[in-house]
Design brief:
single chain, 306 residues, alpha/beta, 5-stranded mixed beta sheet, 22% strand
């Protein structure tokens, strides 16, 4: 089975809870291709990032997942994945130094069939029907499909959005030319205090759909404004979508930080997620670059079903 196949989503039947009026009928993993990253990038290293980025010859698989949440008010996306143009357009990254570094840091395997719109069609969802998309952070492999969901409000944290006004965000792989595109409906969000005991530890939350079923929470560390989403559905295990907070759920649980990001901030956020897991033992934690995300979701989604 290829990496693309192993992380592709599949459409399942609506749950009994949904038929009874529950907001969420399912969560699915979709794939927008896959790539390779350095072992030091994924698992961390004592070497400075510049050194391993330039000298490492050790590559490990890098699935590029996005997540489809089937809500009664319309499908919601978490992230939009990678644009196939990154391979077909030699000037996809406008700065020459970025093009050089990209080849040293990543190897991508992606075709037009991996485009977000094609993956949504495969899941039986018209891209035009996506009304809201939550963006974990602004790195190019998480915003590559925003043009395919042009009707959607694009929710991103205010702190993450502020990086676009800082000098040279492209140095952190935040590429303005693929973010500030015509007709993109960006909606920077703030996190408000909450009395929810599960979310209070994160310092605030944003109710994406207004019914408590999809809650965005700040989980900084990978980038200053990274966010995660907690999906709750009656009769099913809760799901936490963490973006790139960790490259795999087990790495977070083991407190193993990657080779990028703010290590101290990552460990602080990891501790909050582990505390949430302690309060919700059946919580399914899904990372955007985890090849095991689809299997973990399939195994855990039915937990707690009445």
């Amino acid at each position: 089975m290829t990496q693309t196949e192993s992380s592709a989503g599949e459409t399942g039947p609506e749950s009994e809870a949904q038929e009874a009026g529950a907001p969420i009928s399912g969560v699915e993993v979709l794939s927008t291709g896959w790539g390779e990253q350095h072992k030091e990038h994924r698992f961390g290293s004592r070497m400075p990032r510049t050194i391993w980025a330039l000298l490492s010859r050790s590559w490990v698989p890098l699935p590029i997942n996005v997540f489809l949440i089937r809500h009664r008010d319309g499908p919601v996306l978490f992230d939009t994945g990678l644009d196939p143009a990154i391979l077909s357009d030699p000037n996809y990254i406008s700065q020459w130094i970025g093009r050089v570094l990209l080849r040293r840091i990543f190897r991508f395997h992606i075709t037009e069939s991996d485009r977000l719109g094609a993956q949504l069609d495969k899941a039986g969802v018209a891209p035009a029907d996506i009304a809201k998309t939550v963006i974990s952070h602004l790195h190019f492999d998480h915003v590559g499909g925003i043009a395919d969901v042009s009707n959607a409000d694009l929710l991103v944290s205010e702190r993450e959005w502020a990086q676009l006004s800082e000098p040279h965000p492209e140095h952190e792989w935040i590429l303005k030319e693929h973010i500030l595109i015509p007709d993109a409906k960006w909606r920077p969000i703030s996190f408000v205090p909450t009395e929810d005991p599960l979310l209070k530890r994160f310092g605030g939350a944003h109710d994406v759909m207004g019914d408590g079923s999809i809650m965005a929470i700040p989980t900084s560390g990978h980038t200053p404004g990274s966010l995660s989403v907690l999906v709750r559905s009656d009769g099913h295990a809760p799901v936490l979508l963490i973006g790139d907070l960790a490259y795999a759920a087990d790495l977070l649980m083991e407190d193993r930080v990657p080779g990028t990001g703010d290590a101290a901030q990552l460990r602080e956020t990891y501790a909050k997620v582990r505390a949430l897991k302690a309060d919700l033992p059946d919580l399914i934690v899904l990372a955007s670059h985890d090849a095991g995300a689809r299997d973990a979701l399939a195994a855990g989604w039915a937990v707690g079903r009445g």
